[in-house]
Amino acid sequence: MNAPLIDPFGRHISYLRVSVTDRCDMRCVYCMAEDMVFLPKPDVLTFEELSRLCGAFVKLGTRRMRVTGGEPLVRRGIETFLQELGSWLGRPEGQPGLDEVTLTTNGSQLPRLAQAIRAAGVRRVNVSLDTLDAGRFRTITRLGQLERTLEGIEAARAEGLAVRVNMVAMRDTNEDEIDSMIAWCGQVGADLCLIETMPMGDTGEDRTDRYLPLSLVRARIEQRWTLHDVPYRTGGPARYVHVAETGRRLGFITPMTHTFCETCNRVRLSCTGTLYMCLGQDDSADLRRPLRSGVDDQALMGEIRRAIARKPQGHDFIIDRQQTRGVGRHMSATGG
Ligand code: SAM
Ligand code: SF4
Questions:
Q1: How many whole angstroms from 2 Cα to the centroid of ligand 1?
Q2: Entry pTM
Q3: In a 3-state reduction of DSSP, which class is residue 193?
Q4: What is the per-residue pLDDT across 138-197, written as a single tens digit (0 to 9) for each?
Q5: Candidates 23, 137, 195: which one to mutate for ligand 1, based on the most atoms within 8 Å of Cβ?
Q6: Which of 25, 29, 74, 215 has the fewest CB atoms nearer than 10 Å to its CB?
Q7: CA nearest 307: which of 1, 10, 13, 2?
Q8: Ligand 1 pocket, 331 CB below 6 A?
Q9: Which domain holds residue 165?
Q10: Residue nearest to atom 8 of ligand 2 (CA)
Q11: Is the CB of 128 under 6 A from ligand 1?
């Protein structure tokens, strides 16, 4: 067995997020600019190349993988890639293998793909949905249709996939819908997770006006709902409460008000083979170059180890009236 990946702060790196494409059929206001220029195809790793890199991570002790993007389900051949990752599930104890493969999606392609996703071994999906109002949905996603995402959630539930709805909470945009979203998620049998806007990439908008600290939101939610902290964790950064009235979990991802870095167990691989050791820092390692130069698995794993040895302690995101400090790349490039 290879020694596990431990970063300079003693954190065991066992979770990889893989962005399989920077492309998307939506242009959410907090994520992308309206006129995004996408990567030329030769820059993007083939699924064979991505699978090889993922295999190297598994051999180094990665136990969870989340497939994301861009919109992962718009890339042709995604079903086969998911099956490939799924083949690492259920391996004998003590052997390299995955405990879980999950997916983050905007839901638009789930009616078509939910069955194949389940067949590949995925049991949980995160679906982004910031509003239940069709007009607002169009304004926020610029290109999306609410109906498609709702059908996608239904298709996932019908396949027996557990669904967590991801809602980026934005001031004066959807903050008035948080109560109705909690109630709706209870009705459809989904958990809900609220996310603070992070300053990543130019979206053509000033983020200061939309930023909503979740500490404020939680206090407001508590006036209407009975919340109990629960120790439930999915390996990601969300902290959960149980909502007594709906029987569902409600998660909070609070990179801005309460940094989640101390327990960070994750790194992110972009579709070009760039490894980002922190969502909120610019340092990265180019794994495409060694991969395409034909190195063997041991050398590839050596590159990964050297990168993990540079994982920083945490991010330096700031959004307030005085300043906004973030990173230049978009969330869709890094993989949310
Ligand atoms: N297209 C898929 C989706 O929307 O779920 C997967 C990729 S998307 C980049 C992953 C998650 O990141 C989504 O839940 C999205 O809402 C969130 N996200 C994107 N940009 C963000 C930002 N600047 N701050 C906080 N969350 C962001
Ligand atoms: Fe696309 Fe997801 Fe970014 Fe929205 S958040 S633009 S759906 S990648």
A1: 33
A2: 0.92
A3: strand
A4: 999 999 999 999 999 999 999 999 999 999 999 999 999 999 999 999 999 999 999 988
A5: 195
A6: 215
A7: 13
A8: yes
A9: 15-334
A10: 70
A11: yes
